[in-house]
Amino acid sequence: MELMDFFTDYTLRTITLGTAILGAICGMLGSFAVLRKESLLGDAISHAALPGIALAFLITGAKDTGTLLIGALVSGLIGTWWIRGITSKTHLKSDTALGLILSVFFGFGMLLLTFIQKMPNANQAGLDKYLFGQAATLVESDVWLMAIITGVSLVILLLFWKEIKLLLFDADYTKTLGFNVKFLDVLITSFIVLAIVVGLQTVGVVLMSAMLLAPAAAARQWTNRLSVMVGLAAVFGMLSGVFGTAISASQNNLSTGPVIVLVAGVFVAISFIFSPSRGILFKQLRLLNNRRDLKQSKTLAFMYGIAKTHEDKSHPHTIKILNHFQGFTRKTLSQLEDKDYIALQNNMWSMTEKGYQKAENLYNKDSYE
Known about the structure:
By secondary structure, this protein is mainly alpha-helical. It is about 75% helix and about 0% strand. The protein is built from 17 helices and 2 strands.
């Protein structure tokens, strides 16, 4: 496979555009699911869509993508409505409601698929692609549908940006301002359902939640601003789609959907490790720096405690006391020397004027606190 194939090969170009757009919309809308602490919602909705696909086929007898996705959309919306109903009408928590709807709807969907597979006609073949996805079946009309949904989602998002932002971070305050919280909640959830349903053909029921959450989880590590997070999540999702498609196309017998999810997982892993503010690596470096600074401060404080009891901190007696203390580490002393807080003369450590002032400031600060 060469780079030009992405522009000249119709099938590869269509799949790449489709997965890129799908990744962008999933990342963008998945940010709201992550911030609302509804990460399991994507999993529940994707699994709840399965019986809708099967029922749409049983009712129409056709495998038209549009018809099947309408069935998935209706089923997904019903599942979401049931989840909201369970959490509002009972004492059950949201995670219990999500798990319940996920298992019940998915079990019903698998039952219907089993029934369909045993039907005498051969028209039912291929429905199982919605379980794990089959990006190779994407056609130009599917890409246009994804592009339209992405565009509409973006327009709605921009129109209600302030209200949605308020709802995400303080729902009670949003309600006191007179905004229709229920409408905003339904609006966000509906677009999440729509994005999931559109992606079922490419990624499948089982992996769709990862496509929704992974780009958003990666973006969350890099910023505290909602607008930046949504933009980064869209970019990570788009790149996951493009790179996943490229890797899948370069090798035989590699399913596109799982590869896209794995690439998204790589973005998450990189973000968790290397992001400056929340990354594991930089957290560890900051921890080591804090420990080093603490050791230096304790060493300076001890030296100051000895030196301040003597009129002349450079007196040989004072220096002798400092050097006879065994609690100093060679590394800490060397670091203090590099900062010009202490000086080494004839293998004897002594405090400099700069070090004495620094230690005095630390001592006075601790005393004040």
